[in-house]
Specification:
The chain is α+β, with helices and mostly antiparallel strands. It has helices at about 15-25, 55-75, 110-120, 135-145, 185-190, 195-210, 255-265, and strands spanning about 5, 40, 125-130, 130-135, 150-155, 160, 215-220, 230-235, 240-250. It has 2 domains: about 5-75, no CATH class; about 110-290, PAS domain (Beta-Lactamase), CATH 3.30.450.
Length: about 300
Amino acid sequence: MIVGASYYDQGTSRAQVHLRKILDAPGVNAYTLPGNEFLLGKAKEAFDNDGNITNEGTVKFLETCLDNFVKYVGVVSKLKKPKPIEPEDLDCGKPIATTITGVDPDDPDWVEKAAELVGAVSGDTYVKLDHGILTVNQIDMFLKAMPFELTYADDNNQFLYYNNAHQDPDTMFAKRILPQSGSRLSTVHNSLPAARMKNVEWVVGSLRNGNEEYIRTIVPGSPAGVINTHNYQAMYYPDGSYAGINEIVFNFQPWLDWYLQTTGQRLVGGSGPFAPAGGGHGDADATSGASDAGGHGDGGHGDADATSGASN
């Protein structure tokens, strides 16, 4: 959607025409919303002191353009074909700028040895973040207090971090142990049969390609009161390239119960397999739910669905 603002009456109208021609040119691969262009004239007079557009008709027209754009995105998204997924190197064989070399990724003491090698800060040392300053201890406390199990694997498929908030790994929905930090994803998942390892590659490859922004799955076989939910979110560098996977794992049931109680609503009907069945959450893939993952929306992995898992 093309939006512009002009200091006087017209200004950028011709520039918008040129921009549309550029976007429509072969090879650009852009989908440009037909019509619905928005050009705000006399922009210096169009806003109040709070930065809001003063003319109600202009506001209504802009809302119409944006509503049409949202619908257009929904239509165009169905035209986008997913990129073919290349075989993933789960052995960390393609080091990136932040890869710590000199320590075997599968070394059970990787964290301590790698930290010493690069002089990693710790304790009450301050770290400047995107919009704040925290000590390393505060960052640790902040991440451990999250109501999720958090993990991060970089774009070299190295499992770098999890928020170690559980004394007993067997109480986790996606079991993690200290020696795993730093490991190759192939090592983290080494107990999986080849067919399920392919599903791990599919999750990573789909997110790397941008075929999916996130992949969610509900791990089957959880006890009553547990909806074991795994969310895999692609992360990106400032230039937009793939930077790895941020995974959160949590029991969705208490959130659902709270929402229903707070709003006075209730769940009715439905015959899908979402209701938890027998079996503890310890039966889930001990290293990650990725082997059970199906895609979201229409971008799923073949015939897999998010409740039964791609591996079943």
